[in-house]
Amino acid sequence: MTVLSPTVLVLHSAGSRGEIESVAKRLNPIGASQMLFMSTVLSLLLAGAAPSDSATAIFAGGCFWSMEHPFDQLDGVTAVTVGFTGGRTANPTYEEVSSGGTGHLESVRVVYDPRKVTYETLLDAFWHNIDPLQADGQFCDHGPQYHTAIFYHDSTQQRLAEQSKRSLEARFRQPIVTLIAPAAAFYPAEERHQHFYRKNAAYYKAYRLGCGRDRRLREVWGADASRVASQKGWNPMQFRKPGDAELKGSLTPLQYEVTQHEATERPFHNDFWDNHHPGIYVDVVSGEPLFSSFDKFDSGTGWPSFTRPLEAPNVKEKTDRSLFMTRTEVRSTHADSHLGHVFEDGPAPTGLRYCINSAALRVMPVERLGEEGYAQYLPLFQTAAQRE
Question: Catalytic residue numbers?
Answer without folding.
Answer: 63, 355
